[in-house]
Amino acid sequence: MAVTDTSPPSAAAPVNPAGAAALRRIADLPGPKGLPKLGNALQIKRERLHQHAEAWAKEFGEVYRFSIGEREFVVLSNPEVVAGVLRDRPEGFSRTSRMTEIARDFGFDGVFTANGDKWRRQRPMVLAGLDPTHIKAFFPTLVKVTERLRHRWHRHAANGRPMDLQAELMRFTVDVTAGLAFGTDINTIGSDDEVIQQHLDKILPALFRRLMAPLPYWHWFRLPGDRALEGHLAALNEAVQGFIQSARRRLAHEPVRQERPANLIEAMLVERDREGSELTDADVAGNVLTMLLAGEDTTANTLAWAIWLLNEHPQIAVRASNEVNAALGGEACPTRYEQLGQLDFIEACIHETMRLKPVAPIIVQQAAKEREVAGVLLPAGTLVMCLMRPAALDDARFPRATDFDPDRWLANDGHAALAASSAKRVVMPFGAGPRICPGRYLALAEMKMVLAMLLASFRIDSVDTPDGLPVQERLALTMSPVGLRMALGSAVD
Ligand code: HEM
Q1: How many domains, the chain?
Q2: Ligand 1: which of 298, 350, 427, 449 to mutate, judged by most atoms within 8 Å of the beta carbon?
Q3: Which among 121, 264, 303, 430 is the best mutation to test ligand 1's pocket, defined by most ligand atoms within 8 Å of the CB?
């Protein structure tokens, strides 16, 4: 077993003295040499942190340590060990105390950042709001939002100018999240004005900057970037309160919704108003912002990577188009939920994209109790950095591991494979265990919709960067391609 509870069952009991003697301590682990006080901070470019950590894993192995300032991280990349840590939640590991503190400052302390009982109370509500039944019921709206994106892209195709791919996809993902989780049609796809995304896309990079800062400088002073951030947070808070007020109006006008809330925000408000409920107004608001943030970049970035990879591999793109045309029978976009089930090759392309370009390449957790992990004794409070990509790029596990080969995810008959389940134990783009991403069904449905619509309705003329150089990865909590632009022509040209 990769993870063992070595914490004493009671304060009086000894800490597994015989076992502990055989364990390595963190100080015994290998790792890059650092400087006093600064640790390895000067060797790390924050937006490339995942690449530095992956390179060190090649040099120092599946368990090593490094530090940023005085914050030391134990880095793990063996998938069984990583899965063991992720499954050992909430008892053994939790989100880090710095993450929880920053989220509280930013007003998005919801299910993503909560720990312990607070997380236990919120998780079932969020799971229910994002489960496949809700997604099926939401499908007609998903079709409407995808159709809007198609119309918008037809206008781009007509004027012949390349578009900012991620900005386009984020309009889609935010409109979908607001529709499903809040029952509100915000239609940023239909707008050319300032949209909520211009505030949202400042938050995760700011959060990541603070998470990785050697010292919590914001306790003592504000930098210009922090002052700008306050403006973005205020605008988002206003938007969040708007979603809550409309949901409250619906609950007041249609009392049947009190019995059967139609979406996550209504379910949370009903729970908030229940006598004896422990959910607060701040919890509801925190979860509204959490949904917007958790659903925006992750899905949009994965889609951007998938579109880029398809464009780089024309033969695979042709197979994907053929499958889409067969499933859609000449339609420009899926219109029936069942059609999504006929897109096995598209789904394989998505899994393969997430293997090569996981948008969450690192997941950092903190030991809630003393634990033994992979033969190392971790005191309570230890920061553990799980690397999600090294095993996915290991030739011993995936032959020609760096190739984009969606067939790995298919059985010989071309259907989504049971054989792929062993790959799924290694490739964990949505995390694992009790805190696995509850938005994964929604994300998969969104990605199939957009890819099917794109391949059925357009000819992709180019997907590139403004300077024509190879696309770079940038980590800002999620990992995105930098500056991708897409130019389209109509498929019927
Ligand atoms: C391709 C798209 C997505 C990817 C790759 C992704 C990935 C992840 C990952 C890696 C985690 C952390 C899991 C862990 O700690 O084990 C997570 C958590 C979470 N995700 Fe996603 N996600 C995606 C889309 C979404 C969407 C669309 C939503 C909702 C609208 C969402 C909502 C959440 C929430 C609420 C959590 C926190 C769960 C908890 O801590 O209990 N995600 N996601």
Answers
A1: 1
A2: 298
A3: 430
- 376-378: strand order across its sheet: 3-5, 371-373, 376-378
CA–CA gap between residue 309 and residue 218 (Å, rounded) = 39
Question: Looking at residue 475, which CATH number applies to its domain?
Answer: 1.10.630.10
Residue 111 CB–ligand 1 contact under 6 Å: yes
Q: Which range of residues forms the domain containing residue 11? A: 3-490
Closest-CA residue to 1 (of 371, 393, 391, 396) = 371
pLDDT tens digits along 40-53? 999 999 999 999 99
Q: What would you report as the CA-atom Rg of the chain, rounded to the nearest whole angstrom?
A: 23
C-beta atoms surrounding 18 within 10 Å: 7
Q: Calculate how far, in angstroms, residue 417's C-alpha sits from the geometric centre of ligand 1.
A: 24
Q: What angle do CA 131, 449, 202 make, to 5 degrees?
A: 75
* pLDDT band, very low/low/confident/very high, at 21 (cuts 50, 70, 90): low
For ligand 1, whether the C-beta of 359 sits within 6 Å is yes
Most confident of 3-17, 23-37, 222-236: 23-37
